[in-house]
């Protein structure tokens, strides 16, 4: 699972956490039911926002159960036991929202895998792995198109938009605006979020949701660039911040502006029950920005102290700050089959989600389980059930 929105259960009320889990499991099961077991690996946290938005615009509450006000039998169903839920059953989202989220997630995963293959990143530099991954990317692309078409959404437009990325990357150079590079991602996410209004029967929401999608895509692209910055520098891989000479300080400014723009656009969206959508888009995006740049700042400070302190060549005041070109400690590579086996063990025992710190079986990098995040930085809603009232915050939503 990948994505920037990873809400800590301690920042959500019990009801909102159950709803978020229902959408996460619903996305995973929609991928399995419509596209096969392998497609479940395309599950990602950002894609489930699509499912959340469809439900938030189309559901009514009655008798203690969520029921759809739209057609297609959308709503909740009871899913069977799953190892990631401790072999417990659960109420999960299903219907058009989950299916659209699945189609969008496959499109994102297909583009991501194809990008790794084209760049020959890591294991993808090996021809057998690249061939297998390319085949998976092609199949996910076909499945995404068929899944989206059944919902009246042309995911082919997403692929056409994302296909512009390589040309934009080749043309970007020092002094270019990094927003030129993020434009395809912005447009693709804009189309996906706009279509949630179509499925929910809320045509008046299309414009503000398109704006939210555009800014969300910008945010996701920039945060991904910041997270990958050190590794890309070490590998000599392309990174939009390095290519355009954009500092991390400027990237942070753009990210914070995007979060503010999302909050403003949310004011114009008509929800039936927007508590979870509000929490994810207005607050978890802000938490993602804080988390990403706090980690980046700590890493720069550590590297600066390792190379002669803040005044050293790689410190904030050095010639290479704030973008650091110091290669990180070499990563250990594991046999692909052994790595997959260890990932399966981590996932089936919930360690990949719940452990505070664990080692990536493939490359030895330290990772943190998303459910173990104890850094609950909700600073405005603790006193009123964390945004269920939607009136306690200063974001204007």
TrEMBL record:
It comes from the Bacteria. Pfam families: DUF5685. InterPro entries: DUF5685. Residues 300-328 are annotated as: Disordered. This is DUF5685 family protein. It comes from Streptacidiphilus alkalitolerans.
């Amino acid at each position: 699972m990948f994505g920037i929105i990873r809400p800590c259960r301690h920042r959500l009320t019990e009801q909102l956490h159950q709803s978020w889990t229902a959408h996460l499991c619903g996305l995973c099961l929609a991928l399995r039911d419509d596209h096969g077991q392998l497609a479940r690996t395309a599950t990602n946290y950002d894609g489930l926002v699509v499912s959340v938005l469809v439900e938030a615009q189309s559901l009514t509450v009655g008798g203690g159960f969520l029921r759809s006000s739209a057609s297609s039998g959308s709503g909740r169903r009871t899913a069977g036991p799953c190892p990631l839920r401790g072999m417990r059953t659960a109420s999960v989202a299903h219907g058009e929202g989950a299916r659209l989220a699945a189609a969008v997630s496959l499109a994102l995963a297909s583009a991501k895998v194809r990008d790794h293959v084209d760049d020959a990143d890591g294991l993808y530099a090996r021809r057998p792995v690249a061939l297998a991954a390319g085949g998976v990317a092609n199949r996910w692309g076909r499945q995404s198109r068929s899944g989206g078409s059944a919902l009246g959404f042309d995911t082919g437009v997403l692929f056409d938009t994302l296909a512009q990325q390589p040309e934009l990357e080749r043309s970007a150079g020092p002094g270019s605006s990094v927003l030129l590079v993020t434009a395809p991602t912005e447009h693709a996410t804009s189309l996906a979020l706009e279509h949630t209004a179509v499925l929910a029967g809320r045509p008046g929401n299309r414009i503000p949701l398109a704006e939210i999608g555009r800014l969300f895509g910008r945010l996701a692209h920039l945060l991904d660039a910041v997270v990958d910055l050190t590794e890309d520098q070490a590998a000599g891989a392309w990174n939009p911040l390095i290519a355009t000479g954009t500092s991390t300080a400027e990237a942070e400014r753009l990210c914070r502006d995007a979060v503010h723009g999302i909050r403003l656009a949310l004011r114009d969206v008509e929800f039936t029950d927007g508590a979870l959508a509000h929490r994810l888009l207005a607050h978890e995006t802000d938490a993602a920005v804080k988390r990403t740049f706090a980690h980046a700042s700590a890493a720069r400070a550590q590297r600066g102290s390792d190379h002669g302190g803040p005044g050293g060549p790689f410190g904030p005041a050095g010639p290479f700050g704030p973008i650091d070109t110091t290669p990180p400690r070499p990563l250990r590579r594991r046999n692909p089959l052994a790595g997959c086996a260890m990932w399966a063990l981590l996932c089936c025992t919930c360690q990949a989600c719940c452990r505070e710190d664990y080692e990536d079986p493939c490359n030895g990098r330290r990772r943190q389980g998303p459910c173990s995040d104890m850094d609950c930085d909700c600073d405005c809603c603790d006193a009123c059930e964390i945004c269920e009232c939607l009136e306690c915050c200063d974001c204007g939503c």
